[in-house]
């Protein structure tokens, strides 16, 4: 073929484009599994950090159950093995955040149906000291991009056992401080209920009141990010509220005595 002809140049260009595209596609596919593995490992570390454990902890020995609930508190899915492959683990919290925000704009008469469409992840952790913790998600928009986190509650379902927050692009030294241990440590021991009423945890500019069980200090110079995180935590816990209330009700129900169980069963059989 005459290399000086335009047809040669065109054919050569087409061949090169095809070859380069094939190479890029192969590289992308080759790296996809590794990228997904890295994303999964990072999420596992977030969940462990939310209960005060480091990356050296065994995820499968700590996170024993993964649950998906809807916005009405109904359990949709439960997994007790392969947690990192469970529906709860793979849920897209950004998508669920959009659904929560859209639901809040609906008339009250339509919100129950919208709540039924929500899918909210819950994880149950068995901790080294023998205690358990429930881990809940939070997600929202910061100053420069998404912010997210995992918040663990003790079995009273009010006291915070630990948190882990992160972001995609907040300002270093300012909003990015939400990802630091000093900021996260403020939440431990705080409570999201007061006298049985949900109040969340407030991130307060100027500092939390001394002795407050429901406030933490905002980040100096990171007011917008602090407000955004405050709103995200509140919004997500409000979405979880029907599930939390169902657990509270279950915990408040006294276990029947053995004789009472027999009598109840006999009554059922006689009806």
Mind explaining what this structure looks like?
The protein is of the alpha+beta class. It has one domain. The protein is 45% helix and 20% strand. It contains 8 helices and 10 strands. Helix 4 packs antiparallel against helix 5 (108-115).
Kindly report how far apart the N and C termini lie: 94 Å
Number of domains: 1
Q: How many beta-strand segments?
A: 10
Order of strands, widest sheet: 2-1-3-4-5-6
Give the SSE order as H and E letters: HHEEHHHEEEEHEEEEHH
**Major sheet attributes:** 6 strands, antiparallel
Number of helical segments?
Answer: 8
Strand content: 15-25%
Shape: globular
| Average of per-residue pLDDT values | 90
Computed Rg: 24 Å
Helix content: 40-55%
The low-pLDDT segments are 255-271
- Helix and strand content put the structural class at alpha+beta
Summarize the structure.
The protein has 271 residues and is α+β, with helices and mostly antiparallel strands. The chain has helices at residues 6-50, 59-62, 87-90, 93-104, 108-115, 181-185, 223-252, 258-270; strands at residues 63-69, 75-79, 120-126, 132-141, 146-153, 160-167, 193-194, 197-198, 202-204, 215-217.
